[in-house]
Amino acid sequence: MTYEYDGKTEKEAIEKAARELGLDRDQFDVEILETQKNSLFKKGYVKIRVNPVDALDTAEESNDNFMPGRGDKIVADPLPQDEFETKLLGFIKTMVEKMGYEVRTEIVFREPQKIGVKMDSQYSSILIGRKGKNLDALQLLANIYAGRLGHEDVRIILDTENYRIRREESLVRLAYTTADKVHQTHNSILLEPMNPFERRLIHTTLNDIPDIDTKSEGDGLYKQVRVSYKGVC
């Protein structure tokens, strides 16, 4: 579900959205719909569209969290513990094998409403795909299947070759490098299309850096983050 807000400035509109929705800034994406600068006869005006990340539908939410949570993670027995886990591992294995690739699946962590599954395969690079899009697609199908088994409240996190961790570290480095360039040049930079979790990671990483602002642009699951300078030029 999306919401629209307006204000005299972009900051005011975003603060209004956060206050009325009861969300933190990194919990929603912002799309600028209309901007009107201050002039002699007209007051400044900004209209935004807000899309809470947690309000994405179930299919999209399966891509929303890569990494296991901190603190309450349970070191897992790799073998399935019940019928649901048995069917889930079997589905993932069958799905990949029908693509023409051998794979072995096992549980790597269990948390309340979250299960991590690792795929071991000599074809891991193909299963990951460019920027992890193949892995995201497989994870999406695994979550849809879990929902059909009556476990729509459980998120399935699919990984291979520790791609999720490596990707997260790469995005954090990208965020800091981009912020440094924007701070030096005062020019905004539009990053590559990313899924909801990746965008949230960029927003969160740069949230407390003075003079740097971020916002998501575009439609659909894969949007782009624009990193901008908000200091005095």
Describe it for me?
- The chain is α+β, with helices and mostly antiparallel strands.
- The protein contains seven helices and ten strands.
- The strands form three sheets. It has a four-stranded mixed sheet. Strands 1-3-2 form a three-stranded antiparallel sheet, covered by helices on one side. Strands 8-10-9 form a three-stranded antiparallel sheet.
- A hairpin with a 6-residue loop joins strand 9 and strand 10.
SSE layout:
Layout: E1 3-7, H1 10-21, E2 28-36, E3 45-52, H2 58-61, E4 74-75, H3 83-98, E5 104-111, E6 114-120, H4 124-128, H5 133-148, E7 155-159, H6 163-185, E8 189-190, H7 196-206, E9 212-217, E10 224-229
Parallel strand pairs: 6-7
Antiparallel strand pairs: 1-3, 2-3, 4-5, 5-6, 8-10, 9-10
Helix pairs in contact: 3-5, 6-7
Rounded radius of gyration (Å): 20 Å
Order of helices and strands: EHEEHEHEEHHEHEHEE
- Would you identify the regions where 5 or more consecutive residues have pLDDT less than 50? 54-65, 68-74
Q: What proportion of the residues is helical, as a percent range?
A: 25-40%
What global shape is seen?
A: elongated
User: Helical element count?
Assistant: 7
What order do the strands of the largest sheet run in, or round the barrel if closed? 4-5-6-7
State the end-to-end distance: 37 Å
DSSP strand content = 15-25%
